[in-house]
Structure formats: structure tokens, C-alpha cells
Design brief:
295 residues; alpha+beta; six-stranded mixed β-sheet; five-stranded antiparallel β-sheet; 5 helices; 21% helix
Length: 295
């Protein structure tokens, strides 16, 4: 029987120890957490869009919101989409689901603060919205803010990674986060727009923006067929909204419907429609291929 070489035999115990030793899991960075609080009532001089303080690995958003007198206000963080941070404000009433419209109540304007972190280095689009329980949608009043996170720092994270700092009062001077590695940014004030599919009313408004001739073409297409029945202007607008939503243009956070052109040639029993949309991310304008139908 052959023996095992001495040098190999000497290595076997060490190899067995390594194989049997508990495996150390890879180090995974903590997921971003949200610390949300209402700082107090707003004063008459408090106005304007939300502001954002940018730290090495976290952000602090501060803004104004209406809060029910008999309820609370809380924030929800959504970071499921890569390089996107969504903060949604909700009304909170004891024992009442957030998607149940609250009863009529007096409101007061408050100042809220939301701290989000730690964030991995890279670029992010930051959204702030308010959930409307009656219309079942998130309403966004300002365009998303593009930020760049440069790196990690043990002193500006939330979620238990670093000790919590007391939130500065609305009138307090800038904190250490402002003076060392952060900048204060304000959202540009824009028109209200909703993260929801396009509706019949959206398409109707787009046809009206295209011009009187386009809207009259929709009306004439229905009325000139009498006593036959053709789709009404509302029917056409509803069907076009569905068609645009199915084509991917229903994400109104990204796409802005500029105008919708309607063509009705003499003797024709159909309509031809072309929609122009603007990509909010790139600023480019796109035009849908002509679509003919609605006989």
C-alpha cells in the first residue's frame, strides 16, 4: 500500500479546516431608508418649491404640505426603479386605509423633512408626489430633480448606519451637512401633472391645442353621417387615449402630449390622427405614425 507524501499529509488538516469553516457572506451595503417627520406649522412667509440638501451618501428633502387637522402626514419611499428616488406623501387617519378618501376636514400647512440614505454613488432622479385618495393617483407638482451622489461618508447616512442627528428647525442656520459636503438645491416650479394613463380629456385638450379645424373635423365626422351612427368626438378621444397608453405613452411622468392632429378628407368615411409628444427626459419631440379608422 502506497503512503501519502509527508508534505501532502501536512496540508490535509488545514484544507479540511478551511472547507468546514463557516462561510462569510459577502458584504452588502444597507438598503436606503427613509426618516420622515413633520417639523411644525408653516408661517405665512414660507413659500416655494421643495429644497434638497445633497450629502455624500444621503439627501434631505424639505418642503411644504397640507395636513388634515384631525390626522397626520407621512412619507413613503420607493427606490425599486434603478437610479430613481420617489417620495410620496400620504394623509394618515387612525384606523382608515390610506387609499380611502378622508372625510372633509380642515387643513393646515406644515413643513416636512425627509432624509433618505445611504445611497450608492451615481446619478438619481428625485420625485416628490402627493397621493390623491379620491382619484387614486400620485400627483406631482414639480419636475424631477437630477442629482449626483459622489461617495460614502459615515456622518450623513440614515437607517441606523450612523448616529442620527437632530433635525434642524425651519429657522435654524445651515447644518454641518450644508457646510461640508452638500449643496442646497430648489426644484423648478412647473405645472401640475399626474403619474397616470392618458384620459379622454387629455386627448380632447390635445386636439383643441392643434387648432379649431382639427376639433371641427371630429364633430363633422359624427354629425355628417346622420342618420347613420359614427363615433362621437368623445368616443374617438377615449379610443385614442387607450391606443396611446397601450403604445407606452401613458407614462405622463415621462411623456407630454403636445397636440393631436385630425384629418378628414372630402368623401372619406374615416379619420386620420397624428399625435405629437415630448420626451421629458431628453426634450425630444416624437410624432406617432398616422392612424386611420373610426368609420
Amino acid at each position: 500500500m502506497r503512503g501519502v507524501p509527508v508534505e501532502v499529509a501536512a496540508l490535509l488538516p488545514a484544507a479540511l479546516l478551511l472547507a468546514c469553516a463557516p462561510r462569510v457572506p459577502p458584504v452588502v451595503g444597507p438598503a436606503p431608508a427613509l426618516r420622515f417627520e413633520v417639523l411644525g406649522n408653516a408661517s405665512p412667509s414660507d413659500t416655494g418649491a421643495p429644497t434638497l440638501r445633497l450629502g455624500a451618501s444621503s439627501i434631505v428633502i424639505r418642503g411644504l404640505a397640507l395636513q388634515l387637522e384631525n390626522g397626520g402626514l407621512y412619507g413613503d419611499l420607493d427606490v425599486t426603479e434603478a437610479h430613481t428616488i420617489r417620495l410620496t406623501l400620504y394623509d394618515s387617519l387612525p384606523g382608515r386605509p390610506v387609499n380611502d378618501p378622508p372625510p372633509p376636514s380642515r387643513q393646515r400647512q406644515v413643513i416636512y423633512q425627509a432624509e433618505v440614505g445611504p445611497l450608492a454613488p451615481g446619478g438619481y432622479d428625485v420625485w416628490v408626489g402627493r397621493f390623491d385618495a379620491r382619484r387614486k393617483l400620485v400627483e406631482v407638482s414639480h419636475a424631477p430633480l437630477r442629482i449626483e451622489i459622489e461617495g460614502t461618508n459615515g456622518g450623513d447616512s440614515v437607517g441606523g448606519v450612523a448616529p442620527s442627528r437632530a433635525a434642524p428647525s425651519p429657522t435654524a442656520p445651515s447644518s454641518r451637512m450644508d457646510t461640508e459636503r452638500s449643496s442646497r438645491i430648489s426644484w423648478a416650479i412647473g405645472g401640475r401633472r399626474s403619474i397616470m394613463p392618458l384620459s379622454r380629456e387629455d386627448v380632447r385638450a390635445a386636439v383643441e391645442r392643434a387648432g379649431d379645424a382639427d376639433w371641427r373635423a371630429l364633430i363633422a365626422h359624427h354629425e355628417d353621417a346622420y342618420p347613420a351612427s359614427r363615433p362621437t368626438p368623445g368616443d374617438v378621444c377615449r379610443a385614442e387615449a387607450d391606443r396611446l397608453n397601450q403604445a407606452g405613452y401613458g407614462d405622463t411622468a415621462r411623456w407630454e402630449l403636445l397636440d393631436s392632429h385630425v384629418r378628414r378628407d372630402d368623401g372619406e368615411t374615416t379619420l386620420t390622427l397624428v399625435h405629437r409628444l415630448r420626451d421629458r427626459r431628453s426634450g425630444d419631440t416624437v410624432e406617432t405614425p398616422p392612424w386611420t379608422g373610426y368609420a
